[in-house]
């Protein structure tokens, strides 16, 4: 059983998945910092110093605090500013991933172009295969 487990863990797919998860977590931390430390302060500066992370609607009459942390201690709140920040975070992550995947696709297309053309023999064998498939 231990040997089977070793084979399972050392297969390429499991290791690749683990590496992808680790890189994804690190990438997420970078994007969170980009949104929280760069983009949202710029949005706040443009909008007159608004800090979206503290925007909320109290859902209880007991909530009288001015900050989200204190308001949550007092009762139910709808933290729409935090949701807005996380939504922007998601959009940026999705856009950056789109750009990365697009770049990888273009790189793969360039690599495919580098494949040498088929020889006459290979072309003939391909035609024979295609004719046999069509029967």
Can you tell me about this structure?
With 135 residues, the protein is mostly helical. Helices cover 74% and strands 3% of the residues. The chain has 5 helices and 2 strands. Strands 1-2 form a two-stranded antiparallel sheet. Helix 2 (12-46) packs across helix 4 (80-113). It is elongated and about 80 Å long. The model has no long low-confidence stretch (mean pLDDT 84).
Structural class by SSE content: mainly alpha
Count of individual beta strands: 2
* Helix and strand run: HHEHEHH
The strand order across the widest sheet is: 1-2
Count of individual helical segments:
5
Name the average pLDDT: 84
Distance between the termini: 48 Å
Based on Cα principal axes, name the global outline.
elongated
The percent range for strand residues is under 5%
Q: Roughly what percent helix?
A: over 70%
- Measured on Cα atoms, how large is the radius of gyration? 27 Å
Major sheet, described briefly? Answer: 2 strands, antiparallel
| Low-confidence segments | none
